[in-house]
Design brief:
Elements: H1 13-22, H2 26-39, H3 44-51, H4 55-68, H5 93-103, H6 115-126, H7 133-142, H8 159-182
Helix pairs in contact: 1-2, 2-3, 3-4, 6-7
Length: about 190
């Protein structure tokens, strides 16, 4: 028979179960679950297996609980850290709002906004010598835009004829809609 794990008497089995069931954080919930199972007499290995976590991790959970009590179970990754990782952002908040405003209009060379076009815009705005095309694409995504391909146009199309066709079509559709709405509905006639 496997050796029973030592569990400090910070909480009884019922309290551990309640903490397991009521925890809002999934990481903490699993940790409380391991401790609850161990308090019921389960081995650390079986309780880790039942909750889908690694055996070594479950041993660390029990050890931290024995040493620190409820503080050892808390999820430390939720705490905010004040340090920045990676490079600082290219655009401050004001410049980012200017970019969002610029994206609502057409680019200066026409067409659509792409990563390279946004990168050139950032170069002009921030006086940075070279901004990579990927950074432009990153800022496009940050502004919740995606690369769009315009609908293809036939090379022999005539814009004026198309606009006139659309105008006539809407007039015809409105006339047809009026005719249909003025007819009595045969299913409603008794």
């Amino acid at each position: 028979m496997p050796k029973k794990a030592y569990l400090a008497n910070h909480f009884n089995s019922h309290a551990l179960k309640q903490k397991y069931l009521k925890s809002q954080d999934s990481v903490e919930s699993r940790r409380w679950g391991v401790l609850w199972k161990v308090s019921l007499g389960w081995t650390i290995k079986n309780s880790a297996l039942a909750l889908g976590i690694d055996y070594q991790y479950a041993k660390k959970i029990v050890k931290r609980y024995n040493e620190l009590g409820a503080e050892g179970v808390k999820n430390q990754r939720k705490t905010t850290r004040n340090h920045r990782r990676g490079k600082p952002p290219l655009l401050n908040d004001q410049q980012l709002h200017s970019l969002i405003k610029a994206l609502k209009e057409s680019p200066s060379d026409g067409g659509i906004w792409t990563g390279p076009k946004v990168a050139r815009w950032i170069e002009k705005e921030t006086q940075v010598e070279k901004v990579g095309n990927q950074r432009g694409w990153d800022y496009l995504k940050k502004c919740e835009y995606s690369w769009q391909r315009p609908r293809p146009k036939h090379r022999a199309c005539d814009e004026k004829l198309q606009q006139e066709y659309k105008r006539k079509l809407t007039g015809k559709s409105q006339t047809t809609a009026r005719k249909i709405s003025s007819r009595p509905n045969p299913s409603l006639v008794f």
